[in-house]
Amino acid sequence: MTETVLVAGTESHVGKSTVAAGLCRLLARRGVSVAPFKAQNMSNNARVAVVPDGEWGEIGVSQYVQARAARIPATTDMNPVLLKPRGDGESQLILHGRAVENVAAGAYYESQWEQARRAAIESYERLAAHHDVIVAEGAGSIAEINLQHRDLANVETARFADASILLLVNIERGGAFAGLYGTLELMPDDVRDRVRGAIITKFRGDKTLLDPGIEAIENRTGVPILGVLPYDDPGLPEEDSVSLPQQGELAVFGNDDGVSDSRGITIGVPRLPRISNFTDLEPLTNEPGVRVAYLPLQSGLGRVDAVVLPGSKNTVDDLLALRNAGFDEQLAAFSGPIVGLCGGYQMLGERITNAALESTADHDIVRGFGLLPVETRFTTEKHVERVTRTLDPVGLLSEADGTVRGYEIHMGKTIATQPVGRPIGEGSAALNSVLGTYLHGLFENKNARTAFVKAVFQSAGKPYLDERDSFQSPYDAAADLLEMNAPHLFRKFADIDR
């Protein structure tokens, strides 16, 4: 019989995705057949996975990552319901990997929730038929009393999957013990009875200082604290934009090891209001001397050495937001490397037609930044595919060869209006120091990432810094984080460790 562990939280951003990935890798190491699952996700960071009928579909990035941690192919059954926010309280509804319609929150719960629940149960049952353990990830807080009657990712999953619950509580912001106690009190009785233990996450300092609190909360609730995880990021992609700065704030990420500005490079990324798949940029932050700076739209480019326009859930409206902030003038005057990924690629072209199909404004033709001789025409059809492409050493990728792997998720078709380089085949264009591509995951490919980083160092007139000799898989890092800091975990979930 399949065992299910639901990794739930007292709030959002407590580390559920990391712990779920760590559990998947720990069990895979021990020879257990394990699969991830999240009944309902809300994220604009999506990856391509296999639909049960053999086609391609979309799932949230965390379940894709957890499938890799479990050492199995990703399928849409791992995230059967995905809501991709579009702005103005509306989301695109993805069922079993395929876009169904755009819905407001109220309309979703009134007309689509039962269908979503059936989809989640169908997917769970297919996974359970082929795996010994399901590691399910909850969403937000499991104790949202206004939502418990329709909480698909937490309450409903616990019930239809007959799951044992591992509850996570974030101590970074204070009030962890109160949050844990209040969560347990507000949970439905039958779901509360499923809690086997709790883990405190994101702790900084001397763990012994927690001992009196741990003893007191265990006595009050009867729920054992199975571990205390230090604030240690294993490097897994983020599920949503909670980790990014809010609009108007500057944030810089990178692994520059104290490299000075005179030796390192900064890649500027405009913080689009509807940014999506920003995880495309994360591999760059692990390169020595590389910083990725998310820029407020009004701040200008400052002293960045390259610009990457990321994906967007609403390309047209984000393009207009950039133009209103004067970003088009900044970009036209910029002399360094420029890359557009998916929606960013569409923005770099001369124009977008049929724009009203995506935009909330009434625009049929919208002028692009004009840095690539291409134009995009939107249609109602959505392209979703996992691809392998042969590189053509052109422009910013002139030092790259071999193949790259990634995925495409986009509306619209982009065609060239003049001869243009195709460094990544169809769905890409290059001219001088500007590159546009529909390929998500480009920088996860070492050959493309190294070529791009070298090109930026060269453009900035700085010597390229060689990469580190050692590298640990983020999946193993997440597993080690659990194994070292939650040694009693499997004692409470003994049935899954077989």
Automatic annotation (TrEMBL):
Highest taxon of the source?
Archaea
Q: From the UniProt record, which GO molecular function terms apply? A: ABC-type vitamin B12 transporter activity; catalytic activity
Q: Which GO terms describe its biological process?
A: cobalamin biosynthetic process
Q: Which Pfam families match?
A: CbiA (PF01656), GATase_3 (PF07685)
**Domain CobQ/CobB/MinD/ParA nucleotide binding residues, every copy:** 6-233
Per the Swiss-Prot or TrEMBL record, the active site comprises 342 (nucleophile), 440
Which Gene3D superfamilies does this one have?
Answer: 3.40.50.880, P-loop containing nucleotide triphosphate hydrolases
Q: Which UniProt keywords apply?
A: Cobalamin biosynthesis, Glutamine amidotransferase
Q: Cross-referenced PROSITE patterns, in alphabetical order? A: GATASE_COBBQ
Q: Where is the CobB/CobQ-like glutamine amidotransferase domain?
A: 266-447
Q: In which pathway does it act?
A: Cofactor biosynthesis; adenosylcobalamin biosynthesis
What does this chain do? Answer: Catalyzes amidations at positions B, D, E, and G on adenosylcobyrinic A,C-diamide. NH(2) groups are provided by glutamine, and one molecule of ATP is hydrogenolyzed for each amidation.
**Protein family:** Belongs to the CobB/CobQ family. CobQ subfamily.
Q: Which NCBIfam families match?
A: cobQ, PRK00784.1
| Protein's name in the database | Probable cobyric acid synthase
Which source organism? Haladaptatus litoreus
User: Top-down, what is the taxonomic lineage of the species of origin?
Assistant: Archaea, Methanobacteriati, Methanobacteriota, Stenosarchaea group, Halobacteria
